[in-house]
Design brief:
alpha+beta
Length: 188
């Protein structure tokens, strides 16, 4: 018998088995990813830019190709050659942090979505929030850093890897959206 999750009352109609719960959760994640698709594109482009700047060959690069992974849904990904240097792996996988946030700030200043509520202001805010929300490295990005950490002396575990891991986990609880909205609110 599959394990059950019950919400509130104990009637049979309010009980979901784990597969139904996982489907509902996956659909919420899918909806969030579709809403922030522009940010996903910027996220993947930032990885691409850093790979090119570091001279790392890119084997495959895909956007808008939704597929399931162990950790959820993925709308963009790419594979690249092994950089053979730990700092390059960190630079590649944290690229959205230092490329998308400044890009979002510049876009916020250029579009200036303050004032009355209009379609222009709404779309402008959506673009900026989307970019900020997806500036957090994904759990896949962090797992890449962990994989290549075997040559690390241990300092980056405390200073880089651990904080990034916690930041990436925020996305599972919509913390990326909250951080993006707070950042836009502070900047406006």
């Amino acid at each position: 018998m599959p394990s059950k999750i019950t919400f509130g009352v104990t009637s049979e109609q309010s009980t979901l088995d784990r597969s139904q719960y996982n489907t509902i959760y996956r659909n919420f994640i899918l909806l969030k990813e579709y809403i922030f698709i522009f940010g996903i594109v910027c996220h993947e482009i930032s990885h691409y830019i850093v790979c090119k700047l570091l001279g790392i060959e890119i084997y495959t690069w895909s956007l808008f190709n939704s597929h399931s992974t162990e950790s959820g849904v993925c709308f963009g990904y790419f594979t690249y050659e092994n950089p053979n240097q730990y700092y390059k792996e960190i630079l590649i996988n944290t690229a959205p942090l230092y490329i998308n946030i400044p890009f979002g700030i510049v876009l916020l200043l250029v579009l200036d979505p303050t004032g009355t509520i209009s379609i222009y202001n709404t779309v402008s805010l959506w673009l900026v929030v989307s970019i900020f929300a997806k500036s957090i490295p994904s759990t896949g990005d962090i797992s890449n850093i962990h994989f290549y950490r075997k040559h690390d002396i241990g300092v980056s575990i405390i200073l880089i890897t651990y904080p990034l891991d916690k930041l990436a986990q925020l996305q599972l609880y919509y913390g990326d959206v909250v951080l993006a909205v707070v950042l836009v609110y502070i900047l406006l």
